[in-house]
Amino acid sequence: MTSSHEASPLDASVGPAIQSVLDAMEAAEISPEDALKISLVLLNFVEEHHLLNLEEFLGDEQPDAVSIAVWAADSARLKAARELVEEVLGDDEGDDGDDEEGDSPDDLLQSDG
To answer: Which residues are within 8 A (CB) of 100 and not within 5 positions of it... i.e. 6 or more apart?
Structure first.
C-alpha cells in the first residue's frame, strides 16, 4: 500500500465496493498519466450526478437556499478540479488544437488501448 492511500482521511468511511476499486488500481500499478485520466473520468461521473441535483433544484417550487449555495460551491470546486486535470493532461495530450473539450473520458481511455 502506498503511504498516500494510508494517510487518506476517507479510509475510515471507505466501503467494500470503493476498497475493491482502490485495490484493483493499486494492483494494476497505473502510471501517473493513467491516474490523471482516471481522475478525469471520475470527475465526469461526479459532474453528471451534480447536474442531476441541479435539475431537482430547478424542479422544486421553492428550492432550499442552503442547498443551492452548497451546490454552487461544489460546482466551482468541480470546475477547478477539471481545469487542473485537463491542464496537466494537456501537456502531453492533443497540443495540436485549441479545443480543450475535444476528448471525452471514453476517448482518453481508449486512446491508450
So the answer is: 86, 90
